[in-house]
Amino acid sequence: MFSYISKTYDLLNHVLSFNIDKSWRKTAISYINGPSVLDVATGTADIALAINKSDFLKKVIGVDISLGMLKIAKEKTKGKGIMLTCADALNLPFRDNSFDNVIISFGIRNIKNKIQALYEFKRILKPSGRLLVLEFSKPKNQFINAAYILYKDYCLPNIAGFVSNNKEAYKYLAKTIRYFPDPEFLSNAMLQVGFEKVNFNFLSFGIACLHVAYKEG
User: Fold this and answer.
1) 64: annotated binding-site residue?
2) One biological-process term from Gene Ontology (predicted)?
């Protein structure tokens, strides 16, 4: 599905989030520490490029299961020194203890076996390595949440359908956000697989949430 919307994916993300998604990504990468970063579900490489721009000395690798997304990502990252490869988040082609940081933005809700994915992220992280998960959430304020639901469930698919001719893909997006568990669930899952110092912060009144966790040292 993501391959079908890859050409308009960046534009729609920025328009539909009123460009706030750029601020969310900037907040997420501010937590990165250490020379190596794996960007899981890299999509069109927005996060990978932002990391590269903030510190071009960092080793950045992006993985995604969608060939359509990776095609766009390769065009955007040409000459930037960012490595890209097609891989499943549940079976990453890297050795144990390979990365200082693993980041996944707006991707974990699309992974069916989230526990297995978290184990895989933990496996490839170095001791004391950092996991960053940026994901949509649900505002706690009932008025903001009501407006958000109206926009997400009704306005978003119609705008997306007009721009990308693929309304169903963004209906799916709205559905995955609606049924994605609360941040507390994901934090507990991280603790369950053995991550330490797990915490999360709401962004933009709770529309998004940034989770931070560490592999044991």
Assistant:
1) yes
2) menaquinone biosynthetic process
